Each structure stands twice: as C-alpha cells, then as structure tokens.
C-alpha cells in the first residue's frame, strides 16, 4: 500500500502536501504534460484559492495528504480541471483514486455537518478524533458511512442480473441496496432481493467489501443461492431482471467495482 491513513499530521501543513480539493463532488486536478496529477498545497496557495477546510488524512509515499473543501463556484484556473471521481479511473493510479475517494467522503461529511443537527450552532473539529463537536450542546458527529449490501444470486449456473432505473448506462448488474436500521447484513440481503425481484435466497456467504465514495457507502458483498420464487420486477427501482449464463452476459459494470468482482467470480466458477 502506498497510502497510509492517519489522523494527526506529522508537522504543520507542508507546501508539498497533496491537496485533494473538492467542490460539489468534483476534485481539482492538475494537468501536467498531458497527464493528470494531484495538486500540492503550494499550488492552491499560488492560485489564491481560499480553502474553507483543510484536513490531514494520511500519507502517500511519505507525502502528507489533505482533504480540502474549496469555496463555492471557484474558477477553473489554466492548467487545472474539475473532475468527478469516476472520471479519474484509468487516468491516475487507481490507489490514488481511492485515496481521493476517502478525501471526497470527508469533505462531503464536513460540508453537511457544519452546523449542529440538534441545536443549529456552528460545529468545530474535535481535537482528539475525526469528529465534529457542537460547542453549544456537546453533540458529536463522526463521519457517516452508509452500509449497503450487494449480492450475486446463482440458480443452476445462471446469475441474477438486473437493470436498475437509476443506472446511467444500459448495463445489468447484481442487486444492491442500503442496509436499514436494525437489520443484520444477511437480513438486508434477503429483503432487498425479495423486494426488488420477488425471489427468496439461501446459503448467504460473505464475499468481500469495498468503500464506495458516491458519496459515503460501504458495499458489503455476498453470494447466495436461489431458494424459491419467480422473477417479479419491482418496476420503480428495477426496469428489467433475468437469469444469465456465463457465456451470454449482457453489458456489465466496469472492473473498478465489487459488483464486477462478483460477476467475474460467477464467470470463473462456471468455466
Ligand atoms: Zn448542538
């Protein structure tokens, strides 16, 4: 791992610190010799961009990394560009994109917790831990992580794939959904699959997990076997669903996602 997470900065903000600066979900990147790079704090100072919040969150190859909240409607300076995180895959090192994902989640949290949810007073950064504290009533808020389950359901060498109405492209993927308060992860898997396609599943097994910073999810992946029922699509969330053999898959998600790792697992197991 080239990225090492941390809370306490080793020294005062170094000018060569990497600056993961966000505004409205987009990150400021530097264009250098036709390639993209993460700007340094010194670049930000040179541009005269005032940062609303600078938060140390680890090191990349020994260089401090800061999550930075940039001001509203900042200009796009010459030699720099605003990019969404998804648009950075393939253009900068993948581990650096995931480090940017951490920063994006922290900035998103900062932007949405500047005021206390209980009494409305402006919050401050907690000195001892990564949290916002309210000087008025003492309420403490840690960065929010929203767990979601994602599951590959297999029935006689066929994989359940669905096209969700919210998908930006025409691809099909495994089912996923947010965990509800009070649910175990396994209960969440059973409920999501039953709600979305009317299928009951059994033999739920843990597969792996992946942070998904759009904006603050943690995807927890499972595999499961079909138990009973026929596909009955909940047309609000799911536009179409079906059972697909490994050699007849529709368009599937790109390799960065754990959804794709689940599909690749199914394909390997069917070979
Ligand atoms: Zn308060």
Question: What's the CATH class label of the largest domain?
Answer: Alpha Beta
Number of helices: 4
Number of domains: 3
The pLDDT mean sits at 93
Determine the fraction of residues in helical runs and give it as a percent range.
10-25%
CATH fold descriptor of the largest domain:
Nucleoside Triphosphate Pyrophosphohydrolase
CATH superfamily of the largest domain: Nucleoside Triphosphate Pyrophosphohydrolase
Terminal CA distance reads: 32 Å
Order of helices and strands: EEEEHEEEHEEEEEEHEEEH
Structural class call reads alpha+beta
Gross CATH architecture of the largest domain: Alpha-Beta Complex
**How would you characterize the largest beta sheet?**
7 strands, mixed
Number-wise, the strands total 16
Q: Ions, cofactors, ligands: which are bound?
A: zinc ion
Shape: globular
Low-confidence stretches: none
Radius of gyration: 21 Å
Portion of residues in beta strands equals 35-45%
Summarize the structure.
This protein has 4 helices and 16 strands. The chain has helices at residues 41-47, 94-112, 185-197, 258-270, and strands at residues 3-5, 18-23, 26-32, 35-37, 53-60, 63-69, 80-84, 124-125, 132-133, 140-141, 146-155, 158-164, 175-178, 200-212, 217-228, 238-245. The strands form 3 sheets. Strands 1, 2, 3, 4, 5, 6 and 7 form a 7-stranded mixed beta sheet that branches. Strands 11, 12, 13, 14, 15 and 16 form a 6-stranded mixed beta sheet that branches. The protein has a 3-stranded antiparallel beta sheet with strand order 8-9-10, with no helix packed on it.
């Amino acid at each position: 791992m080239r990225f090492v997470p941390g809370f306490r900065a080793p020294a005062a903000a170094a000018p060569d610190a990497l600056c993961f600066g966000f505004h409205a979900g987009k990150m400021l990147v530097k264009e250098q010799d036709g390639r993209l790079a993460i700007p340094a704090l010194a670049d930000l100072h040179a541009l005269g961009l005032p940062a609303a919040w600078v938060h140390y969150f680890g090191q990349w190859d020994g260089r401090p990394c800061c999550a930075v909240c940039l001001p509203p409607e900042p200009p796009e300076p010459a030699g720099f560009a605003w990019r969404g995180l998804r648009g950075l895959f393939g253009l900068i090192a993948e581990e650096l994109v995931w480090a940017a994902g951490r920063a994006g989640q922290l900035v998103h949290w900062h932007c949405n917790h500047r005021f206390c949810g209980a009494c409305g007073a402006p919050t401050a950064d907690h000195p001892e831990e990564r949290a916002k504290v309210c000087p008025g009533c003492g309420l403490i808020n840690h960065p929010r992580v929203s767990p979601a389950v994602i599951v590959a359901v297999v029935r006689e060498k066929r994989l359940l794939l669905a096209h969700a109405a919210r998908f930006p492209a025409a691809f099909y993927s495994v089912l996923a959904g947010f965990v509800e308060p009070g649910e175990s992860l396994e209960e969440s898997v059973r409920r999501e699959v039953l709600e979305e396609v009317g299928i009951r599943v059994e033999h739920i097994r843990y597969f792996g997990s992946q942070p998904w910073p759009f904006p603050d999810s943690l995807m927890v992946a499972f595999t499961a076997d079909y138990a009973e029922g026929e596909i009955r699509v909940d047309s609000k969330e799911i536009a179409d669903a079906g059972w697909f053999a490994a050699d007849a898959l529709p368009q599937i998600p790109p390799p960065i996602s754990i959804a794709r790792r689940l599909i690749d697992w199914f394909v390997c197991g069917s070979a």
